[in-house]
Amino acid sequence: MTLLVTFFLISIFFSFLCSILEAVLLSITPAYVSIQEKESTRIAGQLAAYKEDIDRPLAAILSLNTAAHTGGAMGVGSQATVLFGNHPIEVFGLAMPIGWEAIIAFVMTLAILIFSEIIPKTLGHNNWEALTPFTVRALSVMCFILAPLVWLLLFSTRNLKKDKDRPVLSRSDFRVMAEIGKESGALEAKEHQIIHNLLRFSAVLVKDIMTPRIVVVSASETTTIGEFHQRHEDLPFSRIPIYKDQSDKITGYVLKDELLLNLVDDNANRQLSEIRRNIIIVHKSMPIPDLLDMFVHKKEHMALVVDEYGGMEGIVTMEDIIETLLGLEIVDESDSAEDMQALARKNWEQRAQRLGIVLPSEDH
């Protein structure tokens, strides 16, 4: 009886250990690994290695777990045969159709299910952060002891693994996590909207958020500073495009602050061309993330939008990009281009009305 109980307890113990290590390992998030690496904790290096090549620790866990189940079943079964033989169980003098071996096998199966599957995996999943240091140390010992077996398993399954370079998290995963965060209260509605917009940022093009040329406020480069100020004393923009000969032949832009400084310095007779700055030229089909990178790299806030023939389409600014990211709805990638442009135009009109560019009754 002592050997039977010993085999049983050893099997349950190692199976319990393997199940809790597996649950903890699979519950560790990439963010937690990054935090450990940034803080240079003792487990950071080994933890990152296990998560990067997770097949190795899993092979060690499954090997030990299988050995515990198989060895325990064999040991308990053999001892049950020695102790009870194949004699059927008698109840009130009647022989039952099952023997003690079957009863013991059923009890062991139930114990494995409860004590080495359900309980340890629940504990590991719910307490993975607290158990991570122990898990890393235990896996180090297991991988060292079972190194030959682990190597053999990995070698035999190397060619069966597909999508080896596939990212752990996809855009859909981040989108679902943002939805869950909003529903649980971890994210505010505005924060959720920003994340939602950011994940769709690359689908929006310059033409979808630009100010169309027909409503661009511009001035001739031969206009004097004084003349322009008299015509646009309350202009809300900080950068004004200027043109040569025709309004669609933009040659640059002037800063409103620099214009006002010249007025203060009694330089009202200077032409706008004298304080002109060069303007970036971008194609209307450029994705917004590329435009943002260009603005940051060149330290600019405005660009001239042109079509495939070089003709002016409109003006786009850093403010358009930021407001698109922070304040406006971005349609899904599956929506049609016409729907996206219609929504972008509607959003632009609302923004233009707030700035006083167009009246609410005007139709564009």
Q: What is this entry, summarized?
A:
The chain has helices at about 1-25, 30-40, 45-50, 55-85, 100-125, 130-145, 145-155, 170-185, 190-200, 205-210, 225-230, 255-265, 290-300, 320-325, 335-355; strands at about 90, 95-100, 210, 220, 240-245, 250-255, 280-285, 300-305, 310-315. The chain has about 375 residues and is of the alpha/beta class.
Written overview of the protein:
- The chain has 15 helices and nine strands.
- It has 364 residues and is of the alpha/beta class.
- The strands form three sheets. The protein has a four-stranded mixed β-sheet.
- Strand 4, helix 11 and strand 5 (239-243) form a beta-alpha-beta unit.
- Helix 1 runs parallel beside helix 5.
- The longest helix has 30 residues, at 55-84.
- The relative contact order is 0.09.
- Mean pLDDT is 79; it is low at 329-341.
Strand arrangement across the biggest beta sheet: 3-9-8-7
Average the pLDDT over all residues and give the rounded result. Answer: 79
Q: Mind telling me the C-alpha Rg?
A: 35 Å
Runs in which pLDDT lies below 50 for 5 or more consecutive residues are 329-341
Distance between the termini: 90 Å
Q: What is the approximate shape? A: rod-shaped
Sheet of most strands: 4 strands, mixed
The helicity comes to 55-70%
Helix/strand/pairing category: alpha/beta
Q: What string, H for helix and E for strand, traces the elements in order?
A: HHHHEEHHHHHHEEHEEHEHEEHH
Strand content: 5-15%
Number of contiguous helices? 15
Number of distinct beta strands: 9
